[in-house]
Amino acid sequence: MFVITTITIATFAAATYWIMNRHKPLKHLLSDFRYMLDMQGAGAGGLIDDWINIRRNKIELPDASRKIAVITGGARGIGTEVVRGLLKANVTVIMGIRKPDAAKKMMETMENGKNLHVFSLDLQSQKSVKEFANCVTKEFPEINYLINNAGIMYGDYKLTEDGIESQFAVNHLNHFYLTHLLLPALKKAGRVEEPSRVVNVSSCGHYPGKIFFDDINMKEHYDTIAAYAQSKLAQIMTARYLNKLLDSQDANVKFYSVHPGIVDTDLFENTTFNKLPWLKKIFFKTPEKGATPILFACFNKNIVERGGLYISNCIEGISNRYSKNIDHQKKLFDISCELTGIDPDKFGKN
């Protein structure tokens, strides 16, 4: 009975999808449908991982006085809970958001809110990223943690002012640029026994992804699901590649990528889940639980020697084979440098 029901539902879903998208060329229709199915599978896998490993999803906050953390986003969702955790650990937090006034209430109500500093940052603009980095390093020449947290998911095709597809720009490329600009400050703060850390907030949604090297902006055919998968995959590949690169330079900086879990936030506003809020309340993690593996990546001492690690529920997560291919990682690094005007030999150097 279960098999018959599953086949019936799948057949109905496929028929509905074809009716809604029959205007597309067959190769694009099939590709989009595959990405949709694969993303649903990745999401289901993420939910199962959360159910199985939720007991591992915990962190004991240290006293991290005199430590400095930079986080992108943070005025809502998971980011707010990461900021809350950092402040509880006595970290001085610099938050980059589009509208700094949105953080006033956080500064007034959170424990140690006086240690929260907010600067303007628009991740759809490389100019804004550079201005933000200049503001940060002028006041804080040493940084212990960089948390590349802000992100967007799905939506229509859009290019940023720099001519980059918006999901790739916000989720990966401009965080890559920010990492380059802040790396001197991260190197300065890092110690052999206690390296600085860069944490890329990725997603299990990377799993169906690949990098469209020949059409990074997906101009030939845009599938918003494939674009999101590409951007989240890029974050994992970048963490792995930069960790190797910095190790080869004997720099005391470690890189990690984190899947926070399937979390009930407004990131899902462009999905059907937004129409089923009760479903999210039942099955999804709270933002607080989603923040836990990110804080784990910042503070856990046992992962110091495991730079490049992809983390889910405070243990090693399952990532796709594409992300582990060193040739793909190098090619992504090179194209990311090209798109941000960085000399690859001078990445992260003054």
From TrEMBL:
InterPro entries named in the record: NAD(P)-bd_dom_sf, SDR_fam
Coiled coil regions, renumbered to chain: none
CDD domains: retinol-DH_like_SDR_c_like (cd05327)
Entry keyword Oxidoreductase: yes
Keywords noted in UniProt: Oxidoreductase
Any one GO molecular function term: oxidoreductase activity
Key word NAD present: no
Pfam families per record: adh_short
Protein name: Retinol dehydrogenase 11
